[in-house]
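I am still getting used to backbone structure tokens and would like to learn alongside you. Please make up or recall a protein chain and show it to me in full. Would you write everything just below, so we can both look at the same thing?
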Amino acid sequence: MEIRRIEIQNYRGIRHLEWRIPKGKRFLCLIGPGDVGKTSILEAVYLALSERWSLSIADTDFFNADVTVPIIIRVALANLPKDILSHRILGMELSGIDESGEWHHDPEDGSEPCVIVQLTIDADLDPSWVAYRPDGSEPFISIGSGIRRKLSAFKLDERIDMHLRWSRSSALTKLTEQSHGASGMLANAMRVARQAVFSSITEEMSQLAKGVQDGLHRLGSGNFENLRPGLDSSVPSSGGLLALFENDVPLTNFGLGTRRLAGIATQEMGLGSQSILLVDEVEHGLEPHRLVYLLKYLKTTIRLSQVFVTTHSPIAVEQLDLTDLFVVRHSELGISVDQIPEGMNLGRALTRSRPSSFLARRILVVEGKTEHGLLLGLLDLWDSQRIKDKLAPSSALGVAVHDGQGGSNAPPRSKLFADIGYETGLFIDHDDKSIDKEVEAAEKAGVEIFRWTSGKCTEQEIVESSSAQDLAELLEVAKIFRVDAKTVVNDILAVDKDIEIVDLDVPGWLRSNNIDLDRARKAIHKAAVRYRWFKRVDNGLASWLYPRLTQLKGTTTGNLIEEIRLFLYGDVDSLSPGMSVVNSDG
């Protein structure tokens, strides 16, 4: 059994969702930033397929808390087992679904039989499950909890401990209720346990019970003769005093990860090979190695017919195939879920090199390590200022800076992100004309392009906008990574053999030698590029550049950096260095 199509209307943050799931896709991982609806999608599916007859629904579960518009959840199930196809109710209410996910009133040529479960919740909060028929007229046939139990859906959530006990609706109870004699065994055990408790009562406990008995008599409540502490045998039938133990320690005392894994194991046994598993935040409670193993197991096990998970873990993204990932996006029109297409050659490199980018809201792809280090440093400094100004930092806004690993790779990587729905920017040099077509293709795909003046790279653009004193301080930054001043001087002499310098004092060069500022700039930027002064993530460029942004306002360098800042933060409310702050309270 497999889910082929999901429709959700007016549930929580989802105004509308139509998700057509590829036929035969048995493992699906929903990714994307927080608060876009991933958890709500899983919860909606579980509500529709759950055997529960009473749901914990409140007015706030309606979109915008508007109870005048009903919640409607439809789930189409195909590849149905024989017992459902032959069922006297579901077998008579079969629809059809084709390869594209289009459903039809009846199974037709080119489509396979499916059952469409529809859950409707109106303002009275009373849920109604029916077998929906496309293009059909109501009333639809009601689907009771007994029938929904055959659909075998299980959601792993915070109620996991329930499934480690023999409680009323746990998997363990389902496994033992018919043939293992758990009820009779528990009844006999409770009789023995009651007598054991009675024989272990201390004198203090007896006196306490005697005091309660006397109080009841004073209040005229009955005629008690032997009130005493004991074991209440009415609890196990619903609360689950019979539980799984490891020696003398109940499994519910173990760590969260172990309990979640045990919950999956019991549900697999309880629901059978046609079950559908829903796991929100699959990494929750698991160390990286156990997460990796669990993902491999869920992808390959034949004990489950289909698995849906959500994740915020880069480790999970890194381990999965590109086509296992489904990007969830939120817009004014509703929620969209898009599979990352097959055949994207760069996709595997993206998930391996920086998987966290797939979990962001907004991505800036940068050409290489120089730009990567510059932007990461600027983000730290901008974030510090924003926090002081009581504004959200980049991490809270879901911003990611992605190393494009070279001018030929960065444009197609940015295009891939844009093609699958991410808000994407590209920060790249302009000294390589061979990649112009790739940059143009990225821009047509919706990527916002941030590029230096034609013919220039980052080092050249920054150096040519700097004064002599700024350059002297930039050389001090280069000295950190080139070990000493002598090495930096030798680098400059190697690109301009006729320049006469012995130190890093650029203003001194101009005073004592026949060197003008333009020549000094040219020699410095060439040496920086040739000897890769700043080709590292911790290159120190941001700390050098940040205090100069105010004086660079209106220049090519200053304008481009400001455009990048506005793209990353998506607003105009953070201030450039040196600008005053006026709070709303005056």
Notes: The longest strand covers residues 111-121.
